[in-house]
User: What shape does this take?
Amino acid sequence: MTVTEPKPTIDLSVSPLGRVEGDLDLRVTINDGVVTEAWTEAAMFRGFEIILRGKDPQAGLIMTPRICGICGGSHLTKACYALDTAWGTTLPPNAILVRNIAQACETMQSIPRWFYALFAIDLVNKKYARAQGYDEAVRRFAPFVGTSYEHGVVTAGKPVEVYAIFGGQWPHSSFMIPGGVMCAPTLTDITRSVAILDFWRQEWLESRLLGCAYERWLENRTWEDILEWVDENQAQRDSDLGFFIRYAREIGLDAYGAGPGHYLAMGTFFEPSQYTTPTIERRNHALISRSGVFADGRDHEFDHTLVREDHTHSFFRGSASLHPWEGVTDPIDPEDGRRQGKYTWAKAPRYEIPGLGSVPLEVGPLARQMVAGNPERQAWQDHDPLIRDCHEKIGPSIFLRVLARLHEAAKYYRLTRGWIDQIDLHDRYYLKPTEPESGKGFGATEAARGALADWIVLEGGRIANYQVITPTAWNIGPKDVNENRGPMETGFIGAPVADLHDPIELGHVARSFDSCIVCTVHAYDGRSGRELSRFTVNGMG
Amino acid sequence: MATLLWLQAGACSGNTISLLNAEEPTVIDLLTDFGVELIWHPSLGVELGEAAQKLIYDCANGERPLDILVIEGTVIRGPNGTGRMDMFCGRPMTDWIRELAAQASIVVGVGDCAAFGGLPTVDPNPSDSTGLQFHRDVKGGFLGADWKSKAGLPVVNIPGCPAHPDWISQVVMAVATGRAGDLALDEYQRPSTLFTTFTHSGCTRNVFFEYKQATMEFGQGTRTGCLFYELNCRGPMTHSSCNRILWNRQSSKTRAGMPCLGCTEPQFPFDDLAPGTVFKTQKVSGVIPRDLPTGADALTYLAAAAAARISAPQWAKEDMFVV
Assistant: This one.
């Protein structure tokens, strides 16, 4: 359509946004070509938390990986640690190492597939045809035929070959179990894993993504370091990351897409010597990739008891803000829900911060790397000032969210190689636990796209309550009882929309959060309610 | 050239993600070199917005020929039969599936959910989910027992949670290369070429099964013994090619020490994950496995097992796949 009215007001709706919680519609109001309000609407419901009630305590190991096919290994990881804490198991160091390796391999798989298949294909949108880097972007990133596209998508399968060596298959294995892991790798399993990861390092990480040794990239500590790295030589400048850093700023991806500015990481990967008796209390201390909340410019220790789920605007009965151990999942007909001001199947996770109240927190690579910048840490914990420095100097944006994600490819490779070397082939992988009839557990990890956690209550040898909070819920969840927007809703605010028929800018924002699903954006005229355009953002997961 | 439209209903995308791991051919080669024209896919589709919607509407209206319709995920009928727990482009997904299935030459249900309903159908089935033409092992499902596609075929089921990438790509290639007629289907409408042998076929633990040597616990010692006796492995009762066509080119669950869950069978998840059933072999009189290898009768099985156990050589009781 041609916009002729002065100051047009338009509404946009992202339909399926995360298959984790179902399809998502996003409605956005646009004034003067800029987004001024947003509502995220998850459009699909399966009710896994309801199904889990009354089932075998270990049912979550089978059920929760199937919540999301792209984060299934992450679901397994946290479901298993939740049971470890509920049952009070003891873990051999090998089991912790294998769980770390598996979790990291899933994420290493996800980074290139997400970047090339979901995010970067939008960089060849015709909106940018006049950009200096446009022809190069098309050459690399065009779907199916781009020089980096097929290579990135296919070699991404290599890290999960390593997952399969330990777990039998990926996706959807359930090989982690309270007390350890099911596998008992042999020497050739280890050597093959090393060879496969080395192939991925050479064939993608260093030759395509970085244009340099991964150790060189990891020397960068500040935003200035990154700028110098780009211009250091032709190989780095022309690498996919070097090109992205230049092109993304040319087309303005550093200018919008900021979330609430408050971040949560629940952390992942445990130092084997520190977590052989997994408890909720020892968790923060034992993590390698740390947990934490960065809010209002300050670091706060993560405490799971401060998590709430609000369903004021979700298609569940009533209105409450509950800790997940007390959480309820009581669905209602969306038609009835809409009459009560509800608009989504996702709940709104919030976190209680003394002095700030109940706060929406962004999760994901940017949040993880913000938390990694906290200088106070244990010897085994990751301290990495890079992204926090960039955040301070250039601010959060679509660009910084993507940069944080690509940065993790090198970090996770280095960690994983180290863990493989630590496996003691002559030690155990499992210590058979007792199975107490009752207990409460909390398990969490970092899926590629952010903090993922289970809260489990066991009574009489069965599941009395099971609540999962996915990263998609944290990021794409709706407004809460105080009408505070969810993080991605906030991310849309201020986004410029140049072409109402093709609001690609909203695609960038949605995809930078890795909003794992098909997103259909409907554009409506704010005055007449007439639909102006409809736009689909592809997604996976 | 065959046109293909892939939609996700009550899905986790696990089958899509699994397909991305295919290597011979890769999913991209499948689309660019092997005569499959992808009309649209939620993760891989190129067209956006109005263009994508038009493609799907044109298929539903019969204005664009649709050779293969792939559905991933359960058909969500709730609440109260409205289908509003799964909306796509502003309409219940049930409406899309009904209209598109009527136009397609062949409908393929990929994954256990689309084929049989799978995990979301477990009691109390909060989304009122079902499979395309089965509800667990009962024929009917969403489309009805007698439904046939334009080509005269019932829904072709490629179960598994998820389906192996090669199972999907090879079936799609068979259709695209004009071999749909060779796709013999079994009683659950699975291609016989992939689902006649058992998960057990090719499992590295067969040498232990042969002498009835049990793996007693996970992790320590899973390089020895068979997972069937104590850890609820369903390999001898499950039709799949998991140990013939390995996963991620490397392994399989049972090779890595994980019991087969039977996810290619319509009853998956078995016993609806009731307390005491997960990773614990269900037994009669405390000793005899409740579910015996397919086709075995209890008396002869027990006699054979007793003889096998007596004749077991020492190596069968030790760690064969040593460090």
